[in-house]
Amino acid sequence: MTQQKKLWAALLLTGIVGGVVGMVLTELMHFIQHHAYGYAAFRANGTPISFREGAEQAAPLRRLAVLAGCGVAVGCGWWALQRFGRPLVSIQTALKRPLAGLPFGETVCHALLQIITVALGSPLGREVAPREMSSAFASLWIKRLGLDEDSARLLIACASGAGLAAVYNVPLAGTLFVLETLLGVWTQQAVAAALLTSVLATAVARLGLGDVQQYPLPELAVNQALLWWAAAAGPLLGGAAILFQRTAKPFPLLKRDNIRMVPLALAAFVAIGFISMFVPEILGNGKAGNQLVFAGLIDWQGSLTLTALKWAAVLLALAAGAYGGLITPSMMLGSTLAFASAALWNTFLPHMPSETAAVVGATVFLGVSMNMPLTAVVFILELTRAPAALLMPLCAGMATAVAAEKAWKNRQSA
User: What Gene Ontology terms describe where this protein resides (cellular component) (predicted)?
Assistant: First the structure.
């Protein structure tokens, strides 16, 4: 079998495995959430109950107890994994040395720990777990098929994108994530491979999860004032995203193989649990806050409060050594900031829809903080299934934000 035939066979298998991984991890997360917080999956009329609603219905002391348990899982789990397992390999590191791949057993345990802790209320995202587990499976057949370095790199990147696409039901965003963020190349082969694996993974995941719209929203209004607000708010949201990057950079406080990580993690997550007794919307990956502002179920004061408390909760989790993604937490920080700024705009300037502004803010903050502006735009459109008319405000906000970010970085390096 030629190198090309081996590569495309591996890509086909990777797409299927990525879909299964996304489906299984999603079901596991929901199972743990329902039992930890004591709520049913569906109402009597058959509509699903969201994690936000389930956490809000749980008693405050139950939320505190669950987060304390989450702290024990974070501290003991990652300490044991670092102390007794082989060194973990990030996807970025694996892309630099693709023939070495990722250690399979340790990566699977690492991914399961992420899903378990996010299900218990860790304020970090869930997307890194399916990305890493899919890449670990792809690593199994790199040597067996005798792939060369370039083919192995493409396979690992596509596996990562497939995991993202499957867990969020975003095939095109998963494709762009591979090309823009992981590989940084747009060759015909890379585009075809990324499309194949992300679309196939999404199709497989839909067999078990259905064609789920992550954020079912009322029809989003778009007007001219929104376009001007997006262009004006872009640099401010981009600046906030840069600040978020910098505040998260020093963490964790201790190396994860240090036994003192266990009490540190317990203390940090008890603190998060205490906050959640009063503001349960900070729990989980950030979807709860997005749901509130996208649907206009909160005022601007509450939105700013959520921004501050979610930011603090994410930093506490990172300081304690927890792993997880930052995609949805970044979205929540951007959406809540944008919702509040829209209220200020509407006080003095032509009115525009605050809920739609929140969607734009989530996109801009995500694009800048994760260095993936194109992926962020498509990701939000697929998550919300927003109308095409929203593209112009999204692009205007992203353009001014990225321009301001580049100008700031150039000034810093001058």
Answer: chloride channel complex
Coil, helix or strand at residue 263: helix
DSSP 296: T
In whole angstroms, what is the distance from residue 172 CA to residue 121 CA?
A: 29
Q: Sign (positive/negative) of CA torsion 337, 339, 344, 349?
A: positive
Report d(CA 230, CA 367) in Å as an integer.
14
Q: Which amino acid belongs to residue 1?
A: M
Give me the numbers of helices (H) and strands (E) for the chain, helices first please. Answer: 17, 0
Instruction: Using the predicted structure, report yes or no on whether residue 354 has a pLDDT greater than 70.
Output: yes
Could you tell me the CA-to-CA distances from 82 to 114, 261, 354, 364 in Å, in that order?
14, 11, 45, 35
Measure the CA–CA gap between 412 and 405, rounded to whole angstroms.
11
Q: Which residues contact 322 (CB under 8 A, 6 or more apart)?
A: 74, 78, 117, 122, 124, 265
Cβ-in-10-Å burial (0-12, 13-18, 19+) of 40 comes to exposed
Which positions ≥6 away from 223 have C-beta within 8 Å? 352, 353
Which residues, in sequence order, are bridge partners of residue 325? Answer: 125
The pLDDT tens digits of the residues spanning 257-283 come to 899 999 999 999 999 999 999 999 999
Helix (H) or strand (E) segment spanning residue 364: helix 354-369
Instruction: Give the global pTM.
Output: 0.95
Q: How many CB atoms lie within 10 A of CB 95?
A: 18
Closest CA to 94 of 148, 5, 154: 154
- List phi, psi (to 5°) of 254: -125, 155
